[in-house]
Structure to design on (1009 residues):
């Protein structure tokens, strides 16, 4: 069986970034496996700008951002296989995959899983009503529009104020569709503020907060209209608030879910982010198997994805050099009041790096609060925030010396004033 | 007094601008510039696609190489919608030059081989 | 003049067509849908019931028990996933134990093997059942079947053996003519010696085209949840509550693809096209099912759907010639246990009813087997490599969630009942059935269908005639 020091599953931005960093750290025996016929993953269809401000100090489109990375991968001569689908990972890190050349198994000393995420869809949210065509996830419509040159419809309503939905509101408006509105179940938007401004306000598209689609109607096979209704604080429909919109398209932008399929048979645990439980180097409970990018937790910025993937590469480097013992004491990291999830899920006492990075999201918008990070009862860090929203991920770097790491829980919580 | 959300970067700072165009709430100088521009002559980066002849793709993504006056966006789209290019094409290749007398070019944002 | 026109290509129609194909007959099948097995047959519990439950002596009881015994051979010939996993009818309250005993007696009358299990025995078999369970009736001959491929493969086998199939064609009227019937559709006019009406929820309407009828077929809607295959085994048997007047109740079952289904509700629906779902009904299903299996992981739900049962006002299957004409045969009201009964019904309709009005000569060339399909996950590494060497398309995975290869997609398109729509492809290959619900694979499948039938991408349908997908070009000249 062929062997590699590192097999990276998924050649999107996380996978390429992890590969480049690993290579620079001296791990040269790398194989990237990518299902598409190009490197770059979902960025290929994200033709809007806004990528790369942290990474390159300039604002790039998705294809431009990904090309910078794929160019580097090619320059370094890192091996990759395209049109290749990974079918399984075993506990002893044998990766099986399939492509037109055959069905292969390779043995990896370390694996980084960078398989991204998928969109929640009509099925997952049990969208009420008929099952007509004309109902798509925003990303699906984005692919048809940007890569196939096809509009899925001309009168559009959007459910969910996630960023892809907002971006699509603008894209479809520019390409000749009429976007009637965006509904959001929560009383606040799930997308970035800038996208509310430049994708909705610029095009006079109304945003209906605390609203959702009660019913889709399309008995002849194509969507004809939707029934929108307001919801109360427990998300029940408020009778009498129904309003109908005639439309041929309903786009769903109702969340992204880490694509953890390949982990389901490994007996490892999953976190509140719906990604695998990991330590500070993004190593899962299976020694030598790392995860990073949207398969670990859904990021709002690709810049954060690529920097996280570098951390994972650093973990692989330590692991392959026997500096990442899996037996050391663990301090669990727990999200408490007001915090949705935290990555990592535990921290190991390893004398390698001097910083610990915590990434988390608040569970709802807050104003005028402190974010408090504690170890046991001891407050390690307090950060004041004038305003904080769930759609923006918080990244906090803390000097590791401030922690004892003797097994006491590390907690992250919101302290209201 | 006017309140704005900065769209320069995904951070989305909440800006306040007074009648004398004094900006507060920004975390970087670009926020200040944005707020002033937004109240005097707002601009946007426009991204779209153009038709391409290639064995691999039917559309090539493009963008304005500088922000475009906001009111010219649909006029620019009309130009973009009527262009047809042929592969090979490289990132940065100018597809349309100096559109609508704005000094803004439409450039390709993807490498597409024949 | 044709020998037989068969109206309806559901599971019953498809199996009748296949049976007719074993004789020297000129047969045309007409269905208004764009695919076979597209209404009741594709949206049900897909249970091969044991037959303990129907009233002894009823057609339901007779055909169910007989059909159940036919399934292993049928599914082998037609290359359809089938598993005899047994069913458990579960008592949650003490007083229900009495009912279980009555059901045991009924099973004996119907000739169905069953076994009463104690609480301990049940929980040992199915640890995820409610600890409140008091006992259960095990019916080991019950099974599960792939409800999507059985009608498709049966019809494919029928067409391979000479039957003609017209999909997307709706029967508008039927007239009695001298030596048969004239059938007028929205596209054409045909004459046939015999008409078989297997039109599901519309079989009353079709029947009433030739004579007044004194029964009706009501559509009873059943809504379901589908859960992903998520690495754990929620249940192994099909889990039923005790049956009631409304039907067999809300069950929890695994499917042949190792997904899990939870449902159905049961409500009459005046609209025979309505397969919508609603929150209140689904919430109730959730509540009822949780009584049987408390820890159903509803966060693994990947879809909800509803199906229509053709419920006859007569309360039993209607399988008989019309009053006025022995050569107009009605196969109507085939609600639960219709799926399991369908092969036995098909045999009866042809051998006992058609044989009385047409002379049946065996077709020497009849082959009961469909061309074998590739089942990638059943192959060893070596076998898989050999296959990919022969045809590299089997190495290219199109649907990530369900691991469907381009080779399988193209194979379906090459067959005698090929999928013309995205949904038809989904039913045959499972491409798009997984957790992303075709988010990633749909454009790829769309391209293959457009290429095969030489139509623009814009014209590929999801299912019904208006269900366009990538319908408009950007940057178009107009």
């Amino acid at each position: 069986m062929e062997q590699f020091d590192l097999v990276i599953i998924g050649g999107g931005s996380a996978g390429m970034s992890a590969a480049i960093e690993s290579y620079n750290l001296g791990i040269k025996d790398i194989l990237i496996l990518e299902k598409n016929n190009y490197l770059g993953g979902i960025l290929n269809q994200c033709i809007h700008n806004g990528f790369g401000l942290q990474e390159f100090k300039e604002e790039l489109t998705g294809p431009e951002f990904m090309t910078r990375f794929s160019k580097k991968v090619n320059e370094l001569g890192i091996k990759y296989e395209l049109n290749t689908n990974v079918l399984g990972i075993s506990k002893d890190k044998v990766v099986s995959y399939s492509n037109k050349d055959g069905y292969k198994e390779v043995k990896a000393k370390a694996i980084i899983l960078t398989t991204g995420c998928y969109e929640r869809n009509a099925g997952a949210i049990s969208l009420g009503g008929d099952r007509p065509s004309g109902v798509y996830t925003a990303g699906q419509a984005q692919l048809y529009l940007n890569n196939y040159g096809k509009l899925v419809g001309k009168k559009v309503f959007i459910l969910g104020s996630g960023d892809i939905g907002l971006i699509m509101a603008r894209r479809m408006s520019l390409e000749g569709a009429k976007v009637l509105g965006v509904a959001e179940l929560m009383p606040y938007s799930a997308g970035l503020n800038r996208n509310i401004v430049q994708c909705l306000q610029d095009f006079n598209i109304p945003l209906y907060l605390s609203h959702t689609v009660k019913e889709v109607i399309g008995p002849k096979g194509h969507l004809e209209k939707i029934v929108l209704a307001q919801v109360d604080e427990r998300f029940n429909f408020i009778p009498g608030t129904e309003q109908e919109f005639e439309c041929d398209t309903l786009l769903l932008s109702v969340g992204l879910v880490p694509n953890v399929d390949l982990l389901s048979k490994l007996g490892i645990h999953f976190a509140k982010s719906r990604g695998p439980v990991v330590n500070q180097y993004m190593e899962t409970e299976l020694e030598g198997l790392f995860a990073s990018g949207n398969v670990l937790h859904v990021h709002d910025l690709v810049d954060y994805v690529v920097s996280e993937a570098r951390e994972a590469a650093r973990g692989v480097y330590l692991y392959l050099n026997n500096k990442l013992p899996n037996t050391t004491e663990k301090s669990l990291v727990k999200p408490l009041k007001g915090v949705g999830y935290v990555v990592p899920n535990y921290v190991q006492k390893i004398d390698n790096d001097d910083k610990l990075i915590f990434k988390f999201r608040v569970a709802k918008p807050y104003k005028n609060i402190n974010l408090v990070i504690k170890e046991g009862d001891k407050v390690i860090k307090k950060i004041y925030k004038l305003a904080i929203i769930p759609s923006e991920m918080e990244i906090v770097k803390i000097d590791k010396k401030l922690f004892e790491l003797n097994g006491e829980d590390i907690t992250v919580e919101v302290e209201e004033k | 007094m006017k309140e704005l959300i900065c769209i320069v970067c995904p951070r989305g700072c909440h800006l306040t601008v007074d009648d004398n165009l004094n900006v507060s709430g920004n975390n970087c100088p670009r926020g200040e510039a944005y707020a002033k521009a937004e109240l005097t002559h707002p601009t946007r980066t426009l991204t779209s696609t153009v038709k391409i002849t290639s064995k691999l793709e039917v559309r090539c993504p493009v963008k304005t190489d500088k922000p475009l006056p906001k009111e010219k966006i649909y006029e620019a789209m009309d130009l973009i919608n009527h262009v047809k290019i042929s592969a090979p094409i490289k990132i940065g290749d100018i597809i349309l030059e100096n559109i609508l007398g704005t000094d803004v070019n439409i450039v390709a944002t993807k490498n597409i081989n024949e | 003049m044709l020998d037989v026109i068969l109206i309806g290509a559901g599971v019953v129609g498809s199996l009748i067509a296949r049976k007719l194909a074993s004789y020297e007959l000129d047969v045309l099948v007409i269905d208004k849908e764009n695919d076979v097995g597209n209404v009741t047959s594709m949206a049900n519990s897909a249970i091969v019931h044991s037959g303990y439950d129907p009233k002894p002596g009823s057609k339901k009881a007779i055909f169910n028990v007989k059909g159940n015994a036919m399934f292993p051979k049928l599914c082998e010939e037609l290359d359809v996933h089938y598993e005899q996993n047994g069913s458990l009818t579960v008592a949650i309250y003490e007083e229900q134990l009495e009912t279980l005993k009555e059901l045991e007696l009924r099973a004996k009358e119907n000739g169905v093997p069953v076994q009463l299990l104690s609480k301990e025995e049940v929980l040992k078999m199915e640890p995820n059942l409610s600890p409140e369970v008091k006992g259960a009736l095990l019916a080991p001959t019950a099974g599960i079947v792939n409800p999507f491929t059985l009608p498709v493969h049966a019809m494919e086998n029928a067409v391979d053996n000479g039957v003609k199939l017209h999909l997307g064609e709706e029967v508008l009227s039927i007239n009695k003519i001298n030596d048969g019937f004239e059938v007028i559709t929205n596209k054409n006019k045909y004459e046939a010696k015999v008409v078989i009406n297997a039109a599901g929820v519309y079989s009353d309407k079709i029947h009433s085209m030739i004579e007044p009828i004194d029964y009706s077929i009501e559509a009873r809607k059943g809504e379901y949840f589908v859960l992903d295959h998520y690495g754990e085994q929620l249940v192994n048997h099909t889990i039923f509550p005790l049956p009631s007047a409304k039907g067999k109740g809300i069950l929890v079952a695994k499917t042949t693809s190792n997904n899990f289904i939870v449902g159905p509700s049961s409500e009459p629906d005046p609209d025979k096209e309505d397969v919508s779902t609603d929150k209140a009904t689904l919430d109730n299903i959730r509540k009822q099912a949780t009584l049987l299996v408390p820890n159903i992981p509803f966060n693994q739900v990947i879809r909800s759907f509803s199906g229509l049962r053709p419920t006859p006002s007569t309360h039993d299957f209607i399988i008989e010639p019309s009053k006025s004409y022995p050569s107009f045969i009605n196969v109507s009201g085939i609600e639960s246990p219709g799926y399991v009964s369908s092969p036995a019904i098909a045999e009866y309709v042809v051998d006992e009813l058609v044989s009385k009005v047409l002379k049946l000569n065996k077709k020497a060339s009849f082959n009961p087997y469909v061309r074998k399909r590739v089942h990638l996950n059943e192959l060893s590494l070596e076998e898989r490599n050999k296959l990919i060497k022969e045809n590299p398309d089997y190495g290219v995975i199109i649907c990530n969630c369900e691991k469907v290869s381009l080779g399988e997609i193209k194979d379906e398109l090459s067959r005698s009942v090929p999928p013309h729509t995205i949904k038809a492809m989904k039913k045959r290959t499972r491409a798009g059935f997984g957790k992303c619900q075709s988010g990633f694979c749909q454009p790829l499948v769309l391209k293959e269908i457009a290429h095969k039938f030489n139509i623009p991408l814009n014209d590929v349908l999801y299912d019904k005639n208006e269900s366009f997908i990538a319908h408009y070009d950007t940057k178009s000249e107009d």
